[in-house]
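Hey L., structure's done. Input below.
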Amino acid sequence: MKELIKKLKDGEIIPFLGMGVFEKTLTKDGEKLPYDSDSMILALNNNRAMSPRLMYEYTRAAMSLEQRKGRDFIVQMTNHIYTSKEYDVPSVYKWLENIKPKYVIDTNLDDSLQKIYSDVNHFLITGISRITADYDRYIIYKYDVISKTYTKIDKKELTLDLPILFKPMGSIIPDMNFIISDADFVDWLTEAMGGYAVPEVIKEFRKGKQYIFFGVDFSRDTFRMVANEITLGLDGGFVLLNKEELSKKEDKFIKTHNLESIDMGIDEFINNYE
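Output:
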């Protein structure tokens, strides 16, 4: 584990965080935050279930809500989920706060990752979709620890001198850009396959790297595709899975990407290897 932590710090092993890291996270008044597709649908739809067809995956449900109520509704509801009530950052973020990996991928939409890096200068890359001005599906910011502010920068200014936080599905800060509905993901994945969702600096840096996946649901088509595009050129890695049986799609993805399954929950892993 000492070797793993050293490799995390050096960027040889890259943490990849999914919604499952929120499974045990509660707001200060005891409400659960979304931690899987079903709970995200309920959060977006005022705790009301939707039709079985829409409950299949939250991207589909979000698309339906967007079509009926408008894009601004989805944006504001997503922001409301993570800003209306106070909560502590999930345990895996607290663990990573002390390690401060050189590069982190976080597909969650809140600002937990930014919070644990708020005491150091860093770069932040957030995903964006459905734009016509450019092919690139990301925005790059530089964080100044003195002023506590993010400033947009040109992609040519991104370097490996500072930690890089990559939030490909967007974030509530510094701007509310979210990849959340089917239309968002179709656009983002299309451009990702063309090479426009990841800056060149990251494309070079990630070659031959390993990954450790926390809370990523590989049973969902969307996030398997997202993970595949973001980790192109990977050299295996680890995935934390606390489940008795894998679906065929999960098993295939893990074997195809040469990942080693660690059969324990996130908190157990952290507690054993602090």
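The chain is about 40% helix and 20% strand. The longest helix spans residues 71-83.

-- N.
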